Structure formats: structure tokens, C-alpha cells
Amino acid sequence: MQDAASRLKALFEQVIGAPLPVRLRAWDGSEAGPPEAPALVVRNRRALRRLLWKPGELGLARAWVAGDLGVEGDLYAVLDLMAGHVWERDDDSRSLSDALRDPGARAAVRGLLKLAGPAVLVPPEPPREEVRRTRHLHTRRTDKRAVSHHYDVGNDFYEIVLGPSMVYSCAFWETDDGTTTLEAAQRDKLDLICRKLALAPGQRLLDVGCGWGSMALHAAREYGVHVVGITLSQEQAAYARKRVADEGLTDRIEIRVQDYRDVTDGPYDAISSIGMAEHVGAATYLEYAENLYALLRPGGRLLNHQISRRPQSDESAYSIDGFIDAYVFPDGELAPIGTTVTQLERAGFEVRDVESLREHYNLTLRAWVTNLEAQWSRAVALAGPGRARVWRLYMAACALGFERNRLGVNQVLAVRTPEGGASGLPLRARTWGA
């Protein structure tokens, strides 16, 4: 009888109709596939049960998070080689019986059934790190729960991943040759935003989704503005308040646990929203934009820094990546940049500048993965092995998404242009001061 790895290789190639792009190592120690390629390690038969009961990306993700699947070698290379080699359909309705009705996969699925053993008849429980999704309701309660799931992992864990800057958004890199540090690139990003907003001493800045307070601290310290930072995460707020107190800036910075829909103390001279709008959702995005517009004084500027995706042929059928929705950003939604610009303009803004930082996010994510891998044992001790595996997979896969132009990230500068049309921006593009 063939060993487990050879049988898996044959079954896999039967499904995809192409040679196996990676090496397979099975639970019995056997190996199959290109010897020089990085290895996908199938540690037990439970991994097969997960794939049979939830074919496609979500089944693979569950096996990875639970530790049933692993990688030996370059994780980026395995993800790149495997891209496109899962069953195309990956939604909650696809089950084992669906797969058995698929003529192209029936024989391979039957082979996996034999290899997985009789336990395959019982669906394995999802890893405890998986969150029950709410179908993108985007109420105050569901948004708070989703934010808590993602950001309340623990500040010590985020310190490992993000480094001293504690900035959780795309950095702005001077070079890609390894001579720029993550901390320098994040400082340059914060300063770029401050310059685009033309911040000046005495102004009021609202930082929507303020995270651990890095933007608020930079703007108050370097530009002399008064900042209100809002977040839905209690852990973030506590951390940010301590940083503010440690720097002696409590007279200039207020950190609130508050929904953007509940801010009523405008007008503000400027608003920054950095990596927050992905949580807003398509159904409520116009409301988000209208709220921010109402909070700005005439002539005030908004800097909206947001991840985007490529347009789909059927926009009504689009939903965020199944793994990310289940394990990383519950109820998160991405939109094409054109949709974002349109919604901001519908709310009354004049969009003055759009800058893509797509390649910069690839570099940022790789730096975060390097940080995580360098302190892997401590990260596991802090967050648990499942959560640490979630983060490693999510960040590595997203890095490839930005590198391959499946994802984008853009800074949109918009103005609440007053009646009469005087935007307050200089004539020459990208000289941000008045």
C-alpha cells in the first residue's frame, strides 16, 4: 500500500489537474512532491476531516490554526505556490455532501474519505479562535464586539508584532533595501499624514480609531495640536492614556472609548482615520463619511487611510476573505478605491488627492511577520498557539496580496470645501501647507 504522502499527492493532483506545487509530509513520516520545494506538513488525519467538511480556504485555515497543518521552509513560498489550488467555492453552505456531488472531485474525495478513516463521519469542531460572524450588521454592539475580538488580544502581544512604534497600519518606506527601519517608516507615515492635514499649533484634531495613541502623540508633540482620539477597544485606550501621561501631554490629548457615530463635540480642524474604515461596512459607509463631514469646520481636512480591493465582476456577491472574516476581522469589508472616493464625495467632501501605498504595505507586513517569528515562543505564551498561528498566516498571506496587486491601500485627502470654493490647499499639488 502507498504511504500517506504519496496517496495525498495523487488525490491532490486529481483535484487540481496539475502537478503538486509543494512537498507533502504526512503524519506517518512519508514525503512526496518536489524534494527542493518547501513542505506542507499534514500532521494528522484530522486535517483531512477539516478539508472534507469545509472544502477550500476555510478548511485549510481551520487545520492551520488548530495545528493540524504546518509549513516547513518559506511560508511565503508555500502560500504563493498554493494560491488558486483550493476549491473555488468557499462559503458556509458547502459541505461534504456538496463535494461528493461534484463529478470532478468525487473520486478524490472518496480517496480522502478512506485515508481519513471512520472518524471523518463526525465534523471536527472549529478552533476556539474562530468567531461567530454576524453577517455585517455593523451596529454599535456588533462593531464593538468585532473590534474587541481583533484588538483585545493583549497589548504585550501587539508590542511584539508592531515594535516600539505601536502603529498598526501601513508604514511609509524610504527604501526597500533593508536600510529603513520599521520604526522610521512608521514615523514617516505619521508625519506624512500630519503634513497632508496641514496641522498647526492650537488646532483640534479628531483621530478616529486611534489605536494605541501613536498618531495622537505625534501630532500633539510635533505639531502642537489638541487631539481627541477614539477607539472601541478598552485595552487600546488604557495603553494610549498611559503613553499620553508618560509624555506629559494630558493637556493636549484626550483618549475616549467611543463610537465615531457618538462624537458630537465638533467642529474639528482636521480628522485622521487610519486603518479604521475597513471596519465600517458598505451599508454604513455613507453614514460614516457624513458624520466625519459634519464634524469638520468649513475648510477642514480629512485624511482617510484605508485598505482597498480589486473590483469584482459581481459586486453584490462579494464578501471578505473567509479566513480573515472568521479569525481576524469579523464583519470587516473592503471596497475598491473608486467606491470609497464616490462615497466621500456623496457625503459632501471634495477629494483632492489619492496616493497608493500598496508596495509599502507588503514591506510593513513582512516586518511584522519577522517580529512575530523572532519572538515566537513569547507570542505563543501571551496569546496561545492558535492565535499566534492566526496572525502569522494572516500577515504573510496579506503581504502576498499587496505584493501581487490583489489588495491595495490608499491615502485619500478630502476637504470640507466652504461655499465659494476656496479649498485652502496650495496651487501646486502635494505641497500640503496653505
Automatic annotation (TrEMBL):
Molecular function in Gene Ontology: methyltransferase activity
All copies of domain Polyketide synthase-like methyltransferase, residue ranges: 157-418
Keyword vocabulary terms for this entry: Lipid metabolism, Methyltransferase, S-adenosyl-L-methionine, Transferase
Gene3D superfamilies in the cross-refs: Vaccinia Virus protein VP39
Biological process (GO), any one: methylation
SMART domains the UniProt entry points to: PKS_MT
EC number: 2.1.1.-
The family this protein is said to belong to: Belongs to the CFA/CMAS family.
Protein name: Cyclopropane-fatty-acyl-phospholipid synthase family protein
